[in-house]
């Protein structure tokens, strides 16, 4: 499965963004995160232009940077005209340090601290997503005489067919205020009663790695029903209608997520029809918050094979120089991926192996994947569709250093995040005098 600008060269090696994958491994070391910048830009444009063409009202595509955030990627997203969603003080600091315009920033997250809210208010972000009653009071406490533009996050009670850990729209969720139990309407009343809050509308998010359009259609209808109810009970007519993100990507050839065009067209049509049927006049700002579907297929992780272990009659293990510290998704969610032998792409993949990491766990990265029978120590494995929630979730478990990140585009490769050193692992540590 080749994605984005990936192709097989005449010499049987994998190319990404016009650069040889084995050469990237040689120059920058492994594990290595490789970002196909052209593919990121393509997805940004498909969302931006598709939504603008399908929706007759104002629209904004907000990149959910929790999927993958570096200062370089923030610049790419800014250049493509998207907004940016940040979910912590650290993500906000990264975005601002990259020069991202605060008037296109949205602060998300549950249990936002006074420090994070103060940072957002001082920076002048476009919107703060209110996740709970307490945040209304916290915004009031840091507003400093300002009226802070905000959305209220609704919990729509929608169950998506995704992993338990990434279901965010069901009633039993730490996120948002429930519609069914009346919490959301109480949140509207409290926000409208707070002079420091300028309630602009509503936000929903139903999950991640969603492979059908059904859930998105449902959330538009649920939000429309709530908008009608809010107008009837409080007089509020929302000017922002944010349906969140969650569109899935292809990790394997048997996955068939909807296209970006199918999602934007469906969402726009459903909102326009429903808005008019509800008797509202001017169309609201329609927002979408894609993350994985912008960066997921653009990211590849490169590994070097260190051990090939044949257990007769059981399995063959291929151990690589990374593991759950650079991609925790297989351990967290049972995520499955395609594995390519980057320096042997012309050879048939006729041996089933389990790719394992180096960590002190079973650390099974990729079970039962086909590779060439000639795979040996020193070969390079490439794992496509690793742009979402890999670098963003990386850790230093076993004191592993975090890998470097490179952007590839038009035959050029540039480091945007340096490989962490062992000395950097110890920054901030000290030994009390009594232990010396």
Detailed description of the structure:
Strands 4, 14, 15, 16, 17, 18, 19, 20 and 21 form a nine-stranded mixed beta sheet that branches. This protein has 436 residues and is α/β, with parallel strands linked by helices. 29% of the residues lie in helices and 24% in strands. It has two domains: 7-36 and 296-424, Lyase, Ornithine Decarboxylase, Chain A, domain 1 (Beta Barrel), CATH 2.40.37; 108-290, Alanine racemase (TIM Barrel, Alpha-Beta Barrel), CATH 3.20.20.
CATH superfamily of the largest domain: Alanine racemase
> What is the CA-CA span between the terminal residues?
55 Å
How much of the sequence lies in strands comes to 15-25%
For the sheet with most strands, the description reads: 9 strands, mixed
CATH fold topology of the largest domain: TIM Barrel
**Highest-level CATH class of the largest domain:** Alpha Beta
How many DSSP helices?
A: 12
Overview features:
436 residues; alpha/beta; Lyase, Ornithine Decarboxylase, Chain A, domain 1; TIM Barrel; 9-stranded mixed sheet; 8-stranded parallel β-barrel; 12 helices; 21 strands; 29% helix
Write the layout of secondary structure elements.
Blueprint: E1 7-8, E2 14-16, E3 19-20, H1 21-28, E4 32-36, H2 37-54, E5 59-64, H3 71-79, E6 83-86, H4 89-97, E7 105-107, H5 114-123, E8 127-130, H6 133-142, E9 148-155, E10 177-178, H7 183-193, E11 197-203, H8 214-234, E12 240-242, H9 260-277, E13 285-288, H10 292-295, E14 299-311, E15 315-320, H11 329-333, E16 340-341, E17 351-356, E18 364-371, E19 380-383, E20 404-409, E21 412-417, H12 422-425
Parallel strand pairs: 4-20, 5-6, 5-13, 6-7, 7-8, 8-9, 9-10, 9-11, 11-12, 12-13, 15-17
Antiparallel strand pairs: 1-2, 2-3, 4-14, 14-15, 14-19, 16-19, 17-18, 20-21
């Amino acid at each position: 499965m080749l994605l984005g600008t990936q192709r097989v060269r005449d010499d049987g090696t994998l190319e990404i963004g016009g650069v040889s994958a084995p050469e990237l491994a040689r120059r920058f070391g492994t594990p290595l995160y490789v970002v196909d910048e052209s593919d990121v830009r393509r997805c940004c444009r498909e969302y931006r232009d598709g939504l603008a063409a399908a929706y007759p009202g104002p629209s904004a595509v907000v990149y959910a940077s929790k999927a993958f955030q570096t200062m370089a990627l923030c610049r790419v997203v800014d250049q493509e005209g998207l907004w940016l969603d940040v979910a912590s003080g650290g993500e906000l600091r990264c975005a601002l340090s990259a020069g991202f315009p605060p008037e296109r920033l949205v602060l998300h997250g549950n249990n936002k601290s006074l420090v994070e809210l103060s940072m957002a208010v001082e920076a002048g972000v476009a919107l703060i997503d209110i996740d709970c009653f307490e945040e209304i009071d916290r915004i009031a406490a840091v507003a400093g005489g300002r009226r802070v533009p905000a959305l209220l996050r609704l919990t729509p009670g929608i169950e998506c067919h995704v992993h338990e850990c990434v279901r965010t729209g069901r009633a039993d969720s730490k996120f948002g205020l429930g519609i069914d139990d009346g919490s959301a309407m109480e949140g509207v009343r409290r926000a409208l009663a707070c002079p420091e809050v300028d309630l602009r509308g509503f936000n929903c998010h139903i999950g991640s790695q969603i492979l059908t359009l059904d859930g998105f259609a449902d959330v538009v209808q649920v939000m429309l029903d709530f908008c009608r109810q809010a107008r009837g009970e409080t007089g509020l007519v929302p000017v922002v209608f944010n349906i969140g993100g969650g569109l899935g990507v292809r990790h394997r050839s048997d996955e068939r997520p909807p296209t970006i065009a199918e999602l934007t067209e469906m969402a726009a049509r459903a909102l326009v029809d429903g808005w008019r049927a509800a008797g509202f006049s001017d169309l609201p700002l329609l927002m979408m918050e894609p993350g994985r579907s912008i960066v997921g297929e653009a990211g590849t992780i490169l590994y070097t094979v260190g051990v090939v272990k044949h257990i007769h009659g059981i399995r063959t293990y291929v151990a690589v120089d990374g593991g759950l510290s650079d991609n925790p998704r297989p351990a967290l969610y049972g995520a499955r991926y395609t594995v390519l032998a980057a320096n042997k792409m012309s050879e048939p993949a006729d041996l089933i192996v389990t790719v394992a990491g180096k960590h002190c766990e079973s650390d099974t990265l990729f079970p039962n994947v086909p590779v060439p029978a000639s795979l040996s120590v020193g070969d390079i494995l490439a794992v496509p569709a690793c742009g979402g929630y890999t670098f963003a979730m990386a850790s230093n478990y076993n004191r592993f250093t975090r890998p470097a990140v490179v952007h590839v585009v038009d035959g050029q490769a540039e480091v945007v995040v340096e490989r962490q050193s062992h000395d950097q692992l110890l920054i901030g540590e000290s030994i009390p005098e009594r232990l010396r």
